[in-house]
């Protein structure tokens, strides 16, 4: 997967966990929407628009899309989140030790 695809997958996964599958329209660009439509056609991530009368908005976010991850998407998201966590932890440790290698 490309970096933008991984980023979108992790955003979708976090919304599935934290927002019951609702996605904020303001955080999705046209490329994201096209990729989500493609994933929906492939059955990787189910995706659609929330009915207008059910759209939730708090003034900052507009939760107007929904998603549901396939088993494959959940597994890939977990793997990618772990890789990101390791990378971020290593970068944080390097900053703490002023760039000296930490093993």
Topology (elements, then pairings):
Layout: H1 3-18, E1 22-24, H2 30-42, E2 45-49, E3 56-57, E4 62-69, H3 71-96
Helix pairs in contact: 1-3
What key phrases describe this protein's structure?
single chain; 103 residues; alpha+beta; 4-stranded antiparallel sheet; 3 helices; globular
Q: Gist?
A:
By secondary structure, the protein is α+β, with helices and mostly antiparallel strands. Helix content is 53%, strand content 17%.
Describe, in plain words, how this protein is organized in 3D.
With 103 residues, this protein is an alpha+beta fold. Strands 1, 2, 3 and 4 form a 4-stranded antiparallel β-sheet that branches. It has 3 helices and 4 strands, in the order αβαβββα. The two termini are 28 Å apart. The model has no long low-confidence stretch (mean pLDDT 86). β3 and β4 form a beta hairpin. The chain is globular and about 55 Å long. It is 53% helix and 17% strand.
Number of strands: 4
What oligomeric state do these chains adopt? Answer: single chain
The mean pLDDT is 86
Structural class assignment: alpha+beta
Helix percent reads 40-55%
Largest sheet: 4 strands, antiparallel
The succession of helices and strands, N to C, reads HEHEEEH
Give the low-confidence spans.
none
SS element count, helices = 3
The outline comes out as globular
Radius of gyration: 16 Å
Tell me the strand percentage band. 15-25%
